[in-house]
Amino acid sequence: MKILKTLLITSLFAFSLYSQESENIIDKAGNLVNSVVNDAKEIVVNNLEDIKQIEEEKRLQEEAEKLKKEEEEKKLLREVKIKDMQKRIALIDEQLKDNILLKRYNNYDAYRKISEELIRLKKSLTTINEKSADQVYHLNNKIRIKENELELISEYKGSPIGSLIDPPEIDNYEVITNPFGILNALSYIKKLENNKKDFLSVETRVKELTNLLEEKLFVYLDLYNIDPKPEYKEELEFLEKEKKDFNMVLEIVSTTEEVYTRKIEQVILETKSQISEQIEKIFNLGLIIVILFFVAFLIKLALKKYFSQNENYYMTNKIINFTVVFFVLIVLLFSYIDNVSYIVTILGFASAGIAIALKDWFMSIFGWLVIVTSGSISVGDRIKVTRDGQQVVGDVLDISLFKMTIREDITYTSYRVNRRTGRIFFIPNNYIFSEMIANYTHSGLRTVWDGIDIAITFDSNHKKAQNIVKNILKHYSKGYTDITRKQLSKMRSKYQLRATGVEPRVYTFAEPYGIVISGWYLTNSYSALVLRSTMSPEIIEAFLKEDDITIAYPTQTVNTTGGNQNFRVPPADLPEVP
C-alpha cells in the first residue's frame, strides 16, 4: 500500500508539472499510471500471499512446538504420578509387612493352592490309562506330601485368618460357695473381659487391614490407568480377591462379636450377682462372729470379778476362747459345706488312716481335753515331768491344744540332778497318759512337804537332837502350816482326805554310819529351796553348840599304840550317806 501511494503521488506531481503538455501526454500518463497501479496491485497481492504463507508456517511451527512441550510435560507429570503412586504402594506394603492377619491369609491362600494341586494329582492318578508302578508310586508320594501339608495348616481350611475368626471359648463358671470363690469369680470376670477385648481387637485389625487393602487397590487402579502393565493387572486381580475375602471375614467377625459380647455380658452379670450374694452372706457371718466374740468378752469381764487367782481366770479364758472358736467353726462349716453327710462319710473312711498317721496329735488333743475338763493341771502350776530318767521341774506357762509350755526354775532337782535351769520345755499333752507328771500346786494347794536329813554319831544325844530339829522346823514353817490347813479343808469337798496332819514331823533312823535325824515340814511350792537353805545352817549351828551331839559323816577309827586317842579319818571308798 505504501508503494502504491508513493507512485500515485509521484504521478500527480509529474502531472502538475507538465500540465501544459498536450492531451497525448496526458493520455500517456494516465495509461502509465494505470499500468503502474495494476503492477502495484499485483505486487501487493503476491506479497500478501507470501506473508500469509509465512505466518501460517510460523503458526504451525509454534503449534507443533507447543504440542511437543505439552507432550513432554504430560510425560513428566505421568512419571511423577507413577513414582508417587509407587511410593504410596511402598508405604502401604511397609504397613502390611508385619501384619499377622495378612500372614495368616497367605497360609489360607497356600491351603487353597495345595488343595487344588491335591485334586489335580488325584485326578491324574485316576485318568492315567497305562499306569506304571513308578508313576503310581510317585503320584501317591506326592498326594501324601500334599495331604501332610494340608494337615499342618488345616485351621485355615475355611477361614482366611484361621482360628482367629472364632471367639475364645467361654468356660463354664462354678457356682460361688465360699469367700475364696469370690477371688476366682473376679479372676473369671477379668478373663472374660480380656477375651472380649481380644476379639474386638480382631475386628479392629480386620477393618484396618481392609482399609489398607482398599487404599492399595485404588492406587494400583490409578497406576494401571496411567501405565497399563500386565503385572499391575495381576496385582489388581489379587488385591480384589484379597479385599473380597477380608470383607467376608469382617462381616462374620462383626456378626459373631455382637452375639459373643451379649453372651459375655450375661455371664458377667450372673457372676456379679453371685458375688453380691456371697458378700452379703459373708457380712451376715461376720456379724454373727462379732456377736459371739462380744458375748465372750462380756462373759470374761463378768467372770474376772469372781476369780481370786489369775491362774484360774487364765484357764477359764482359754476355755471360753476355745468354745467361741468351736462355735465359729461350726457356723462356718454349716454355712459353706452344702453336703455335711458327704464330709462325714469321707472323714469316716479316712479316720482309720488319720488315727494311725496322726496318733500323737490326736492323743495330745484328748490329753488337752482331759487337762482342761479335769483341772488336773492349770496355767501357773508347778509340775514335775519324768521321762526316760530325765526330770524337769517348772511352772506351766501355757496349755495349748497339743502341748504344755513350762519354764524350768531353780529347785532341789536342779541342785541334785540337772545342775542347770531356766530352760523352756514343751511337754506334749499325751504325756499325761504315758508318763508320770507331778503337780506341786494342784487345786489351790501351794505347799509341799520337804525334808532335811542330818546324821549324828551313835554316841550323840539323839533325843535332844530330835527336839532341836523339831523346834527349828516349827519356827520357820508355822505360816505354811496354817495355810496348808485351810487349803486342805477346802479340798475335802472334792477329795476323800484322811491323814491331814500339817505339823512338822521328825523321824530318827539308825543307819550304818550314824543316827539320821529326818525332819519334814511344809514349805512354799515355789521357794522350797530357799527355806531349806535357811534352816539347814540353823540346825548345824544348834548341833555344834551341844557337847553331846556330834555330826556324823563316813569315818573310821584308828587305834595307835601308846595311847587311846581316837583319830577320825575319812575312809577311802565308802558310799555317800543319803
Helix/strand-derived class?
alpha+beta
| Number of self-contained structural domains | 4
What is the count of β-strands? 10
Spatial strand order of the main sheet: 4-3-2-1-5
Low-confidence stretches: none
Radius of gyration: 64 Å
How large a portion of the residues is in β-strands, by DSSP E? 5-15%
Chain-averaged pLDDT:
77
Query: Which range best describes the helical content: under 10%, 10-25%, 25-40%, 40-55%, 55-70% or over 70%?
Result: 55-70%
Distance between the amino and carboxyl termini: 178 Å
Number of helices: 13
Note the overall shape: rod-shaped
User: Which H/E pattern describes the elements?
Assistant: HHHHHHHHHEEEHEHEEHEEHEE
**How would you characterize the largest beta sheet?**
5 strands, antiparallel
Protein name: Mechanosensitive ion channel
Organism: Arcobacter arenosus
Keywords: Coiled coil, Membrane, Transmembrane, Transmembrane helix
Subcellular location: Membrane
